[in-house]
Amino acid sequence: MDRKIITIERHITEQQRKYPEATGMFSDLLYDIALVAKIIARETSRAGLVDILGLAGKTNVQGEQQMKLDVFAHEAMVRMNRHTTRLAAMASEEVEDIIPVSAEYGIGKYVLLFDPLDGSSNIDVDASVGTIFAIYRRLSMGGAGRMEDCLQEGRRLVASGYVIYGSSTMMVYTTGQGVHGFTLDLTMGEFLLSHSDIHIPAKPKYYSVNQGHEQYWTTGMKRFTRWLQGMDQKVPRRPLSSRYIGALVADFHRNLLQGGIFYYPADTRNPRGKLRLVYEAIPLAFVAEQAGGYASDGHRNILDVQPQSLHQRTPLFIGNRDLVEQAEEFISRYDGQRQVDAIVGK
Ligand code: FBP
From CA 35, how far away is CA 56, in angstroms rounded? Predict the structure, then answer.
C-alpha cells in the first residue's frame, strides 16, 4: 500500500529539478512522446477491429511494404512534434531524408530520431510491436536543423527509450540517470512508474536470434550460438533458453527485465546487418548501458560508432555485458580481420 503513484509527467519534472539551468523544453518533449505513445497504443490495441491492418499500398525508404499502422504511427509522431518550438529537425525510419522543422513553427534546440513502429511484421498476428526514439541537442547553429544534427554518436545522446505495445503498453526511457519504466493505465490514460531504476539481471536466461538464418552466418556466429546453447565442449556453460518474437523492441525488453542477449549479426546476405544504427541500435544501446548491459556491432561499442548516413545498417549484439563481449571474442577468434573490416565497412 505504501507504493507511491508517480506519473511519467511527475517523474520527468523531478528529473528536471536536477538541472537548475533547465528550461523545461526537454521535459515537455519527453512528455509529447508519451502522448504520441498513448495515441499509437489506442490504435494498436484495436488494430484487429478497424481497417488499420494490412498494407498501406506504399513502400518506405528501405523498399519495404508499409503497414497502415506504420504510417499512422509515423504521422502521429510528426504531427505531435512539428509545431512545438522544441525541435530543429526529426528523422524517421519511414522517410528518406530528415524532416526539417520550418521557421513558421518556431525552431528549437533538439532533434528527434525515431522508428515509429518497430516489428511491423507482427501487427497482423497481434504480437508485440514498439516505437524507438532518440533525442540529441542540435550541433548546427540556427535555422532549420541539418543532417549533421541527426548523425551524432550515441555518446552525445540527451535521452532515448522505447514504447512496447504488448499485453500492456510500457514506456521505458533514460536521460543518463538510470532506466525507468512506466505502464499505461488505460482507465486513467496515465503512464505510471512501474519499474524504477531497471538493471539487467546478472544471471541471463535467454538468447534471441533468428536461427533460421544460420546457413548465412559466419563460423564465429555459429560457434557463439553453440556456446550460448551450452554445446561448446571447449568453453562449457549453462545453456540459455531461446526466445524470438521478431520485434527488436519486444526481444530487447524481455532480456532487459529477465537477462539475456539479442543479436542480429552480419551474414553473407546482409554483410552490414539488417537493423538500423541511428534510430534502432543507438537508442537501445544507451538504455542497455544505463541498465548495466552493453551493446556492440560485434567489434566495438555501438555508442562509439559515428553514423555516416541516416538509414545505415549495423550488426547488433545487445544485453548482458559478458555475453556481448563473448560474441566479440568469437568474431575476432573465428572470423578474423576480414569480418571485422566488413563490420566497420572497410
Ligand atoms: P522494422 O519492423 O522496424 O523494419 O524492424 C526490423 C525488425 O522487424 C526488428 O524489429 C526485428 O528484430 C527484425 O526486423 C526481424 O527480422 P527477421 O524477420 O529477419 O528476423
Answer: 24
Q: For a pocket test of ligand 1, which of 165, 216, 274, 276 has the largest count of ligand atoms closer than 8 A to its C-beta? A: 274
For β-strands 241-242 and 206-208, DSSP reports them as parallel
pLDDT tens sequence across 289-328: 999 999 999 999 999 999 999 999 999 999 999 999 999 9
Cα separations in angstroms, 163 against 112, 121, 129, 247: 15, 17, 9, 12
- Residue 52 burial class via C-beta count within 10 angstroms: exposed 0-12, middle 13-18, buried 19 and up: middle
Which contiguous run of DSSP H or E holds residue 206? strand 206-208
Per-residue pLDDT of 218-264, as tens digits, reads 999 999 999 999 998 888 899 999 999 999 999 999 999 999 999 99
User: Is ligand 1 within 6 A of the CB of residue 115?
Assistant: yes
* Mean pLDDT on 37-66: 70
